[in-house]
Amino acid sequence: MDKEGGSLSKKVEEFLQVFKKGEEFTHDLLQENEKLRYRLAQVEEVSKSSGRDDDFKSRTLEERINILEDENKSLLDRYRQVEEENKDFANRYIEVETENNNLANLYVASYQLHSTLDFTESLKIVLEIVMNLIGAEEFSIMMLDEKTNELSIVAQEGMGQETRQSIKMGSGIIGQVAKSGEAFYRDGDPTNLKGVDYTHPLVTIPLKIKEHVIGVIVMYKLLVQKTEFSNVDYELFSMLAGHAATALFSSKLYSQSERKLTTIQSFLDLLKEK
To answer: Which of 139, 148, 159, 202 is least surrounded, with the fewest CB atoms within 10 Å of its CB?
Structure first.
C-alpha cells in the first residue's frame, strides 16, 4: 500500500512538474508573442512615418523643381529681352555709323564745292558728287542762258550727243522745274527702266540762288548697284540745289571776270607799246 502510494505521489509530482514546465513555456511564449506584436507595431509605425517623410520629401522636391523651372523660365525671358536689346543697340549703332558717314560725305561734298573758283573744276566736282555719292549713271548739268531763256548742257555723264539740244524755259518737265524752282521726282521704282527716256527724267533738281534759278541737274539713270534713293540722297539734292548753284555761279562770274581782266590787261599792254 505504501509502495503503491509512493509511486502515485511520484507520478503526481512528475505531472505537476510537466504541467509547470508547460505553464512556464506558455508564459514565455505569450511574452515572446507580446514582444513580437510590439515589434510589429514599431515596424508599422516606422513604416507609416517613413511614408509620411517620403511624401513630404516628394512634395518638397516637386516644389523645388517648380521653383527652378520658374527661375529658368525667368532667366530665358530675360536672356531673350537682353538679346533683343543687343540687336536694337547693334541696329542703332549701324544707323548712327551710317548717319555719320552720310554727314561726312555731305561735309566733304560741300567743302569741295567751295574749294575752287574755276568754273570747269566746279562742274567736275558736281559731276563727281552726283555720280559717286548719289549713284547716277546718266545725268547732265544744264545752265540757263538769260538772253535766250534756254537751258543748255554744260557737263554730262553717260549721255549721247543727241541729248545736247537746248530746252526752253517752261518746256517739258525740265523746263517746268527751271520755271517753278520746284524739284521733280518721278514716281515708282527708279530702277524700273526699259531704256532711258530723256523727256521723262528720274530726278530734276533746280540750281537756285535764293529764288533765282540759274540751271538744273537732270538724272536719267542710276548705277546698277543703286536700287533706291536714301535719306542722304535727298539731303544731297537739297545741298546741290543751293551749294552747287552758288559754287557754279561764283566760279562762272570769276572766270568771266578773269577773262575780262585778261582782255583789259592785254589792251593796256598794247596801248603802252604804242
So the answer is: 148
